[in-house]
Design goal:
271 residues; Undecaprenyl pyrophosphate synthetase; alpha/beta; 6 strands; 12% strand; six-stranded parallel sheet
């Protein structure tokens, strides 16, 4: 653990201090006056490190702590007027972890998705649940939970939560190009005609959710400073924020600081 991370942990332990709460309220007022990102992407990293620090060893228990943080993110985003959040919860690379850990992650995700269907806050806030990723690598019970949540919340239109499950950025781009070529080949187009059709706009139309606006802000927890394949296509102009807090320990003040960091950027989109 780095010196900065140890200091951040001590600050989190002092969160009950009155002066800390005063600072949080002041930060919230400051952020409320600035431009708000429409779409926030979050890489949920640091579950295992948080579990080890807490003396936890059972994988599903560790990952259920991270899944519970979704409730906070929904509440904070609703308060700030953020209308879209994408959470990266499982990648194809994660399949290389021990079987017990993979089962723990997917079990925690399934349980949380099922809970969302009956959560009154989901209806009250008008939250629509969507999912992106390679369905064929996910167990049937999880797919059933995802489908049920999407059906149950499909009519909600005030906030969208996208769960990136079985998702990888390289896989998404690969699947988009394959779909583009397959569609044109099915029409009887020649190789030359198909090649002439391949363009950024054409590939974009075949992404998992092509109507999804690009994320304005991407947050990664746990102190790691990389995207690791998260929304590779969509993140070309995203602002990035890296936070030392492990995901289950991510606080409202961490979220507010990320938003404040976004508000201080000069977004020129390459111009």
């Amino acid at each position: 653990m780095t010196r900065n991370a140890r200091f951040a942990d001590r600050l989190r332990a002092w969160a009950w201090w009155p002066i800390y709460r005063i600072y949080e309220r002041r930060l919230a007022r400051q952020v409320a006056t600035g431009p708000m990102p429409r779409h926030v992407g979050i890489i949920l990293d640091g579950n295992r490190r948080h579990g080890r620090a807490a003396g936890l060893h059972e994988p599903e228990t560790i990952y259920r702590l991270g899944a519970a943080k979704l409730d906070d993110i929904l509440a904070w985003s609703a308060d700030l007027g953020i209308s879209m959040v994408t959470l990266w919860v499982f990648s194809p690379d994660n399949l290389g972890r021990p079987e017990a850990e993979v089962d723990g992650i997917l079990g925690a995700v399934e349980a949380k998705i099922r809970a969302l269907v009956d959560d009154p806050h989901i209806r009250h806030r008008g939250v629509r649940v969507a999912a992106i990723g390679r369905r064929e690598i996910l167990p049937p019970a999880l797919l059933e939970a995802i489908d049920a949540a999407q059906v149950a919340t499909g009519g909600n239109d005030r906030m969208t939560v996208i769960l990136a499950v079985g998702y990888g950025g390289r896989e998404e781009i690969t699947d988009a190009v394959r779909a583009l070529i397959a569609n044109r080949a099915a029409r009887g187009d020649s190789i030359a005609e198909i090649l002439s059709e391949i363009s950024p706009a054409a590939i974009h139309r075949h992404l998992y959710l092509p109507e999804l606006p690009d994320p304005d802000l991407i947050i990664r927890t746990s102190g790691e400073v990389r995207l690791s394949g998260f929304l590779l296509w969509q993140s070309a102009h995203s602002e990035l924020h890296f936070c030392d807090a492990n995901w289950p320990a991510f606080r409202r003040i961490d979220y507010l600081r990320a938003i404040r960091s976004f508000q201080r950027r000069d977004r020129r989109y390459g111009r």
